[in-house]
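Task: encode each sequence below as structure tokens.

Item 1
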Amino acid sequence: MTVTVPTDSRHQPGLALLLIGSTLTVLAGTVLTPVVQLLITERHLSATAAGLIVTVHGVSLAAVAPVAGRIVDRHGVRRPLAAGLLLYGVAGGAGVVVEAYPVLIATRLLFGVGAALVFTGTTVGLLDRYAGTARDRVMGWRSTAISLGGVVWPLVGGALGVLSWRAPFAVYLLGVPLALLALRLPDEPRAAAPPPGATAGRSALLARAPGLLAVYALQAAATLLLYTVLVFLPVRLAALDIANTAVVASFSASSSAAMSVAGLGYAGLRARLTEPVLLRWAFTTWTVALLALALVDVPVVLLAAAVLFGLGMGLAVPALTVLTADRAPAGGRGRATALLATAGFTGQVASPLLLGPLHAATSVRLTFLSAAVLAGAVAAVLIGRGDTRPR
């Protein structure tokens, strides 16, 4: 893509809005996790039905993401982002007053549509407004914002859950004032006009930029590994008689904090290394961390493994986003970015579907060991491809 933008991020408007908006896809599910048990007991729902309230938005998000990308490519970021934030706020906040379970699920599906526009709009908005070292720096900040959101929003949901299971739904209303702010964003610089046929669907997009398939595969693998840790680390700790929820939460919080630190240091690393090298380091650190989670029974080592995993994630998130932007064809950055979200959701869903039955049939050790094998295999492929050139 040929876009001329200033490289000094201090003079770019809307940065805070776009970074806050980047945390909203994390907020989407995490703010409700503390009240899942309340939904079961107070609404008399099954665990599956309660869990759907937290996760079902991902279905519509993944399905609508390519359409959201096409809209952003055609109309720019400002208006689609504002519409997405408004729908995010209204549909998400509807849980404060909705009574009937089917209606609540319907609002969550609409909420996923808004979340798709928010993810695509904020990501493309940042990519369109920055170039060179400024873009590397901002992508690192985005990674940090996302990881901090993973710590802050569950705490907010837990604090509001003391009042009522409905109270955390009010947090989604944040999307409404953010939508008004998004309308005040200046028109972003756009790519050169796409060639004929560039407005076709995802198959045409991937035909024009086949390198994106590798990026999406890496995104799916990274998300699968992330959710392996999120889902099965508490099980691993329980096997060591570590069941205190505050202690268990400290492991995931430490991982998120490490991701934040890596995000802040991403620009400095990117100044010396290419994205493929950073991804190689990410998958290598994940291999070591997952092996430790599988084989070691010392709690402090498991904590160190969680921190190491977070460091790798802090490198992978901005690297994969930048690779997507760089490999997107002219006029297709929005669709390319949206498909990155679809790939991530695919990995999220695949993690429990693939590793859950393995855990049930064997043990949590073998579950982490299998994840380590996957991470190691990807790292070996990346190492085999070379590309050790410094930037």
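Item 2
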Amino acid sequence: MEFTFVSGDLGLDLAGTVGRRRGERVDLLATPADLARWTVEAGLLDAPPDVDDDDLTRARALREAIYRLASAARVASPSTAPSSETADLDLLNRVAAYPPPAVRLRAHGVLERTGDLPAALSAVARAAAELLGGPHAALVRECEASPCTRLYVDLSHRRSRRWCDMRGCGNRAKAAAFRARAR
């Protein structure tokens, strides 16, 4: 299984590790090894951290909290969030409070990123907090391609982006529309 990073935000990319949320869910973080690999592919750490089942459970809880908060941001500002989101905000803020990965510049411009899983998740939580507490919160959209439910930040020129990724969902939607017109 491949991870994709097309959401425009690390928090939304973590939330995007669940596909088809309103159908038969596809969880790309099925094992602790998947989560460790995701942290490297997301560019958070250079080496996979140690991850156990409890860590995976905590990461999934963060993922779902980010998804709920970002979904709510699509219709209201975070300052008007209902009290039911308090637990999600508390979780996000608690994870964001942990120190992020250490970054070190080595010889010849080589960047080194080190840390443990809590550090990597802290970077994700911080990114989500920055997004949801900033001006781009109003630009969070959900992919229009069925059955995709990925959230993304629409930074297109006219704010008219319809799909999470033109190469995947957008291409399939346009091909389906073409086939429908051809019939």
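Check on item 2: The chain has one domain: 10-140. The chain has a mean pLDDT of 89.
End of task.
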